[in-house]
Design goal:
- The structure is a single chain.
- The protein has 13 helices and five strands.
- It is of the alpha+beta class and 285 residues long.
- Strands 2-1-5-4-3 form a five-stranded antiparallel β-sheet.
- The longest helix is centred in the last third of the chain and has 14 residues.
- The protein is globular and about 65 Å long.
């Protein structure tokens, strides 16, 4: 397993920035995806050797001024800047913002009441292990026929996607879903957290290289919003837009809400609920 999350994050973000985005010419013989190390070094005002040391994990404690310069040069979004600072702090041996506490499984009464208000939308609460802790009836109608909730007390998104063969049939974009789940697991202390480390061991045994190669290559910053395509055994092809909302730090949980991405999906979800069309409106704009 990679222990150089800072270097991985910097490299993947460097490769994602095109020269045109930072006002550099694009030559016809470019082979490097995104920016070259020398180009990033020039933009950030540091040496190429220093960029190399950071990406290779030989220096894991850049100064605040260097971090700010790199973030500006890479055009990092606020969430990416926060994640960058977490990675630098996480490089300290033994550091864990969770203190080794077990991920909470109890969902507060007000959060459960919020879920009730979200009906008929599919929505769920997960903790940092991606345990599915609570959900709406809309989510149960969506995911129970797929198999995720077969054992409701042990439902876990990561284990379902990587260890249950039904997941590959269900998720049309399985590779992307798998990437996002690994990113979510790595967003915190990852193996410095004994509970996530135990889950990672279980996923390594269950999925092998499909999991371990993602740990080595996917940076730990999952998308908070996006579109998921499902092949549902009862409703057919579905396109769902999701939003991920962080609950309080004490909860250490997230609320994920799904909405239909098109009119056909909206009609299919209404049909699953036994409702007249129009109960859920497709997301537009």
């Amino acid at each position: 397993m990679s222990d150089n999350e800072l270097g991985l994050f910097l490299r993947t973000r460097r490769e994602a920035v095109t020269p045109a985005q930072v006002g550099l010419p694009t030559g016809p013989r470019r082979r490097t995806p995104g920016l070259r190390r020398a180009e990033l070094a020039t933009l950030a005002g540091v040496s190429v050797e220093y960029i190399t040391r950071l990406e290779q994990g030989r220096d894991r404690h850049p100064s605040p001024s260097v971090v700010s310069a790199l973030a500006d040069a890479l055009g990092l979004a606020p969430s990416e800047r926060v994640h960058l600072h977490r990675l630098i702090k996480g490089a300290d041996p033994g550091f864990s913002c969770t203190g080794g506490a077990r991920p909470p499984r109890e969902v507060r009464a007000t959060v459960r009441a919020l879920l009730d208000r979200l009906e008929p939308a599919p929505a769920l609460i997960v903790n940092r292990l991606r345990d599915v802790l609570a959900w709406t009836e809309g989510y149960e109608r969506l995911m129970a026929p797929i198999g995720l909730l077969d054992d409701a007390d042990r439902a876990n998104l990561a284990l379902f996607v990587f260890a249950d063969p039904r997941a590959r049939i269900t998720y049309s974009d399985w590779d992307h879903i798998a990437d996002e789940l690994v990113a979510a697991l790595k967003q915190g202390p990852f193996r410095a957290d004994p509970h996530i480390a135990a889950l990672a061991d279980e996923l390594t045994i269950a999925a092998g290289a499909e999991f371990t190669r993602r740990v080595e290559s996917v940076p730990g910053l999952a998308a908070a919003t996006g579109t998921t395509r499902l092949s549902h055994p009862e409703a057919g092809a579905l396109r769902l837009t999701y939003e991920t909302l962080e609950l309080s730090a004490d909860d250490d949980q997230q609320l994920i809400v799904y909405l239909p991405a098109d009119d056909a999906t909206a009609a299919a979800l209404d049909s699953l609920a036994g409702r007249r069309p129009g109960g859920l409106r497709a997301v537009s704009g």
